[in-house]
Structure formats: C-alpha cells, structure tokens
Amino acid sequence: MTVNAPANPNPPEAAPAKASSRTRSEHKLAWMLCAPAVLAMLLVTAYPIAYAIILSLQDVDLRFPDEGGFVGLSNYSAVLSSDLWWTDIFNTVFIMLISVSIELVLGMAIALVMHRAIFGRGVVRTSVLIPYGIITVVAAFAWQFAFSPETGFVNNLPLISDEMDWFGGRFSSFAVIIMAEVWKTTPFMALLLLAGLVTIDSQLYEAAKVDGASAWQRFTRITLPLMKPAILVALLFRTLDAFRVFDTIFVMTRGALDTESVSILGYNQLISRLNLGLGSAVSVLIFLCVFLIAFVFVKGFGAKVEEGRPGG
Amino acid sequence: MERSGRDYALWTIAIALVVIFALIPVVWLISISLKPPEALTDQRFIPSDVSFDNYKSLFEGGIDDSPFIKPLINSIGIALITTAISIVLASFCAYAIARLEFPGKRVILAGALAIAMFPPISTVGPLFDMWRALGLYDTWLGLIIPYLTFSLPLAIYVLVAFFREIPWELEQAAQVDGATPFQAFTKVIVPLAAPGVFTAAILVFIFCWNDFLFAISLTSSDASRTVPAALAFFTGESSFTAPTGSIAAAAVVVTVPIIIFVLIFQRRIVAGLTAGAVKG
Questions:
Q1: Which residues have a Cβ under 8 Å from the Cβ of A156 and sit 6 or more positions away?
Q2: pTM above 0.90, yes or no
C-alpha cells in the first residue's frame, strides 16, 4: 500500500448541504490529533537547525566564552579550506558507496533466498533479524575484538597473516568498518527488497520460462526492472544512513589514521573541542550534503520517496 | 515440482552461510565474555576454559560502584518512557491520517519522512548548548526529547500502514448492534489496532536502545548515560587490564534478551519494518 496515498479508504459520507461545518470540525479534530506529534518532531529539528545556522555564523568557542560575535561565513571558509574536511568527505563517501553496494548485492541475494527457498525460509528470516536487534556499538565491539591482533580469531583463519594489524592502517581499518556496517544493515535491505519481490506476479516467470529465458535473463529482464522503485527507495534510505556513519568508527578507531567520517568531525568540534561555531558550520554542511543526496535520488534517479518509509 | 538433490545441497549451503554470517558476532561475544583474563589473547573462537568472572565484575559493588547497573537502568527507563510517549502521540496522528481527510496531511507525512532522513549530528551542537542552558544536559529528559523526535516518523509510518488495514466499518456495525461508541471503540477497534501498536512500540524501543550519538553527546555521568555510551567509556579493573572481558559481558547482557524478544516477535517486526514499503 502507498503510505502517502491521498485517498481515504472510508471517506466521510456527509450530505453536501452539511458538508462544510462537518468538514471543518473534521479538520479541527485531525489537527488536534496531529499537533502534539508535529510539535514534538519540530522541537528537535527545525529549531535546532535554525540555531545551528545562527551559531555557524558566529565565533562561539565555549573554552573562550568572552570572545565571540558575528563572523559571517568565515567558519564555512575555514571548514571548506581545510584538508581535514575533504579527507573526511572522501572517507564518508568511500565507506558509504562500498558498504551500500555490498549491501544491495548481499541483500538481494538474501531476499532471493528467502523468496525462492524450497525450505528453511523461517531460519533465514530469523537469522537476518539478529543483526537488526543488536546495538550498533555492541556489533562494532564484537568485530573489533574479532579483528584485533591480540584477542581476535580472524588472524588465525587460513589465508590471513597472523601479523595482520587491521587497525594499523587506513584502508584495512575501512575494510573492518565496512564489514561491520554491512553486517548490521544488510537485513533491513534484504527485508525491504523481499517486500518488493513478493509483489511480482509469478506468472511472468512461468511465461519467460516457456519462452526459454535463462534464470539470469529472468532476473535482469523481469525482477530488476519491476523492482526498480523498491530498490531506489531502499538505496536512498541506506545511503543517507550510511552517510551519517558514526558509531562503528567511534568504537573502532575514533577517527585515528585518517579514518574520520564527517559525523565524527562534527562531534569532535562540537563536543570534544567545544567549538560551537566551527562545529555548527560542519553540522550545516552535513545537512546540506544529506539534502543533496536525497535530491539526486528523487530528481536524478526518480526515486518515489512517498512510497518509501523511514528506516528502522 | 521435482527438485534434484543438487538443488537441496545448494540451498542448504546458501542458508547455512546466511545463518553463520548472522550468528558469528553473537557467538563470538559470548565466547570472549566467558574467557578468563589469561585466556583472552588465546585467539580461540570457542573458549577452552569457562569463567563467569566478567559477569560478576559487572555487578560488583551494587548500584553505586558497578559501572554497568546504572547505565542499564538508564537505558531501560529512557527507552521505555520514550516508547510510551512516542506511541501515544503517533497513534493520535496516525489515526487522523488514516481515517480523516484534512488539508496538511501530505505535509505531515512528507515532513515526517524528511525528519527520518535528517542527520542527527546537525542537531547535537545546538541541543548541547540549549540543554546546558535549560538544565537538561545529562538528564533522562535531555535524551527522551531527541529520541521522541527521531522515533516519531518511524512510529507514525508503521501505525498509518497498520491503521489503514483496519476495517473501521466494524465500529459502526457494533454501534448498530447496540454498543455505545466507547464500547465499540474498546471492544472492536482496540483489539484490531493492538498488534500494529505493539509492533510500532518494539521498533521504537529498539531505536532508542541503539542510539549512541545523542547518548555520548548529551550526557556526562552515570546519571543518564545509557549502555552504548557507557560501553565506550568502560575502563578495566585496573589500568593494567583491558576492559575487553567486561565490555563483552555487558554486551551479552544487553544483547541476548533483545535477540530473544526479536525472535519471538519476528513476524510482527518484519511486518513493521516493511509496512508501507510496497503497494499491496
């Protein structure tokens, strides 16, 4: 079903003459019911982002509370001209692109296994929900301990050097971070894709089989085109989520060895260095990046967001 | 339909891979948590010796000295309170959206979707500043408010999807049969809506339970620090012991109950996670 469909399944059957007063009271009731939730949602988004914009135009450093004042866009030019920001953007986009690509392939494979399984469908569904139920920080610790040269079992596996220091280098750290992210979020991808798969009419496959299409042809000519809307929405939500990557990196490297993401940069400026001016400029830039990603998906790829839903 | 033995073998391998992949970190955490300190670096996946010392140290010293009990209470309390408030507000809103026609309905749904995409880091700085001025920094309420904001879109979407499936005409039918409007609502509608509400509640609880960014940014002590934040700041028994064992034990304590819960209610959770994702 479409969440955003304007059609009401039970339209009020008011007589035209009385419609206006009845409609008006219905509008009033609807707004009274929605107002608390709407206010609660705006409270911690609209006002803080406006406040963040104001802070980002000022020199606010809580370590030096007496200094300050309006500084225009100089916080933005400081952030945008720093190598750190661009390194972190690269890191974030790198982690985002690779983890979402792997998730899409794995998620599709798991969805197909669940959809086409001859047996064991329940077992697969049960297991993919385990990563969903685990706290991201806990999963990050589990993988960190597994890959650590001291406590981990990974270096004992065949084909992997006993001496491998995963967190001693930038890209080997990324490998572990991406693997933890993929483990945690593939289930959500798989479930969304499965929901799209089950809507495809199985007669299409039977007809294609009769016409002699191979399994791969059936997948690329029937499954993929018909699932395009579901895939785009799943990709949009996962991409935005991956762009915000924070927990896993914080636990595994704290951003050491150039593994920082933009969210870690924002946190360090705001909370560790208490530089609210610079930190807010970072926050606003992250907000604009997220906006840009959503815009590209909706306008560029034609993702029908109104058919989507917030991630779990 | 005939299936060859080869098909069964391939499916068995595919299913086994998925199950192993999902289970490895959980089994591994349990394994480390049971290793005695001297065996921590033996690199074995399954411990050779089993000891419960890591669990004992978590709860040692009672509520005042244990590094874990207070964060656990904070996590449970904050998540439960947020879930309760979020579900009540979202139910009102979702009821209006599912049943009533009014201008602004699309705006509310679009706004909720936008908030679900909103980067939380963008609000952390302002909240940190505002909460210190308002005295909400390092309090339960200071975390409940942002959790409420970011869990409401999820709750509203799940509930709208469920509420649209409810055959509301049964309510009128009950009234025709002589039930009062209140009876019609409590005896007919509430039982029909309960599964959806319960599903939304599980998803919101897991969302709050999982949060890390707000938990480390807006808290500074055991007064309100939740488990994920406390884990990141765990220290060993002494400065010479790594906290690995304690972290693993704490991780198992907060993970196993949730996993059992998730598995019991898996059908509901799958329905909730994919509610509204597909036209049907």
A1: A162, B43, B44, B45
A2: no
Q: Has residue A55 got a pLDDT over 50?
A: yes
> Where are the alpha helices (H) located in B105-189, listed in sequence order?
105-117, 121-134, 140-163, 169-176, 181-183
Percent of chain A with pLDDT over 70: 90
- What SS3 class is residue A302? coil
B89 contact residues in A (CB cutoff 8 A): 36-37, 40
State whether CATH 3.40.190.10 applies to domain A83-308.
Answer: no
Q: Cβ contact (<8 Å) for A247 and B278? A: no
B29 touching A (Cβ < 8 Å): yes
Query: Residue-wise over B153-186: b if at least 16 C-beta within 10 A, else e?
Result: bbbbbbbbbbbbebebeebeebeeeebeeeebee
Contacts of B143 (CB under 8 A, 6+ apart): B78, B82, B211, B214, B215, B218, B219, B224, B226
CB contact under 8 A, B15 and A123: yes
Q: pLDDT tens-digit profile of A175-191?
A: 999 999 999 999 888 88
Nearest CA to CA, how far is B16 from chain A (Å)?
A: 9
Distance from the A209 Cα atom to the nearest Cα atom in chain B, whole angstroms: 14
Residue A88: predicted pLDDT: 92
Question: From the candidates A141, A239, A275, which should be mutated to test the interface with B, based on the most B CB atoms within 10 A?
Answer: A141
pLDDT tens figures, A97-132: 999 999 999 999 888 888 877 777 788 888 888 888
Q: Is the CB of A129 less than 8 angstroms away from the CB of B266?
A: yes
Domain B62-266 has what CATH class?
A: mainly alpha
B122 touches chain A (CB under 8 A): yes
- In this predicted model, what pLDDT tens digit does every residue of B64-101 receive, in sequence order? 777 888 899 999 999 999 999 999 999 999 988 888 88
